[in-house]
Every structure is written in structure tokens, then in C-alpha cells.
Write a structure and sequence with these properties.
- Helices cover about 60% and strands about 0% of the residues.
- It is an all-alpha fold and about 120 residues long.
- It has a domain at about 85-110.
- Helix 1 packs antiparallel against helix 2.
Amino acid sequence: MTVTSITTGLPTTPTTTTSDTPRNSLGDLGQADFLKLMMTQLQQQDPFEPMDQTAMLAQMAQFSSLAGTTEMGDTLSRISTQMETLNQTGLATQRAVAALATQVEALNAANANTASPTTPAA
């Protein structure tokens, strides 16, 4: 029995889709790009020789890892921003307390100089 390709008679020009944002390198690929590649791979596979289940599971594990790493990076970025804000607030508070302490010391010194010594009545 002879099996012919199901693509016989179909146009051979590849169809490509482009993302809305330009990419500078492979490091810029994200979750959506990975999912598009995987879906395209599934759509274009030979139905008589489908993708190996082990390879499919490995790709899905990579996708899950990518998603977790991306989420962790976003969370760490937010934490870093909050820590920087907290640090700046702490520094501003320190300066305010130091200025207030200086004013209190100056007022105490001024009060000590103007206070008249009292003599006990005899």
C-alpha cells in the first residue's frame, strides 16, 4: 500500500505570523511566542508519525518552567521597587528626625540660658 503526502497539491509557500512587537534576539521571546511555536508544531506534524510523547512532555515542562521563571522575575522586580521605596522613605524619616532633634536641642539650650536662677526665700 502506497501512502502519499497530504500536502500534495497544496501551496508550498510558508505562512508566517509576526508579533506586534519587534524582537531583537532569541532572548526576547516570551510565553506567547513559545506557545505559538508549540501549537504550530502540533498543527504541522505528520499524522502518521506524531510527535514523541516524551518530547511533547519535555516541551510542556519547559513552558511551565518559563512561566514560573517569568512570574518569579516579575515578583522580584516588584519587591525590589517596594524595597527601594521603603529605603527612600526610611532615609527621609531619618533626616526629619535628625532635623527635629537639632531643633529640640536648640530650644532646650535657649531655655536653659534664659531661665533665671531662683533663690530660696528665707
